[in-house]
Amino acid sequence: MKNKIYKYFFYEFLRYFIVVLFALTSVIWAVQAVNFLDLVIDDGHAFTIYISYTFLILPKVLTKLIPFSFLIAIILTILKLEKDNELIALWTSGLNKIHIVNLIFRISIIVMILQLFMSNAINPETLNFSRSILKNSQLQFVPSLLKERQFNDTVKGLTIFVNKKNIDGKYENIFIRDEGKILTSISNQGTSTIFAKSGYVSNNEKILVLLDGNIQKKESNGSINIIKFKKTEIDLSGLSTKTISDVKIQETSTLNLLKCIMNKNLFMHNCTQGHLKDISIELNKRFGMPFFIPLIALVCCFLLTTRKENKISFFHKYIYFLLGFIILITSEITVRYSGISFQHTTIYYLLPIGLLPFIYALLIRTFKYENLN
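Above: the chain sequence. Below: its structure as tokens.
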């Protein structure tokens, strides 16, 4: 009998959890996907790169929302069973409430393990892969570099200015400054500056055709060589943008971060004395924050004490939701200080773990007087 009850409760929770998690993820992912349109509009990456990058951030969004989705799912499950009078049926049949508390706690452990797996194994790999996609991608759309009356320096070492863009797609008064020998066909010996009265982009959107202008090349001996032209073509395909391509701490595998902390592995990117605090915070996020999920579960179990005849029972769901939400906010705030020292890290982990037995004992004490054995 108990097994059937446990399965029913678990399936109800799972249904709410999946719906809430993916609903919230869809909204937040859509907002971030819109923000990432700059990769195409400003940085000139291909749409395939944009689509791949936005989908690869999904695990990060999912992981971030797991605790909050768990909080909502547990509360909705309890409220649903209470509304349908199913909880009363369970209590009158002789089922001790502490058994449901234990079930909810076991469910929270499963969700905690899920978040641990996501934050330590899946997220770093997908984020690192998304960064490598940007790093290895090349400029696909030359028109993204040609913005009217704006100095565009999307490509490092290359600055482009266009005074006006006509309706027919032609550009007027074009200025190009190449300080990084980006345009090798022109700047193979030094810095070059190009002026052109007009120009247009080829049909394949990879070549910039310049008309009536001159190229000022600074030679190695300091002299300026001026070359006039009626028409010249500049191949801008294959250029890399200034999109950050260095691997961030959150994109580094957990194993490498642990090696950095323990062995001071200076061969790893960002493994320096100045980054040790940030690395500690990142590790605490991955290992510590999931432990707040069981704490939230036990807090929500106080909803089992609610009675419909109680005048303030209507507010209980809001009170315990607010308490759970405060726990989530507290976990986000305290983790930012957890990397200051070993003592701060210890306090951060002891906060959820130390409160678990206290709240569990309080639940036992509360149910003790209900005489439901």
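The mean pLDDT is 81.
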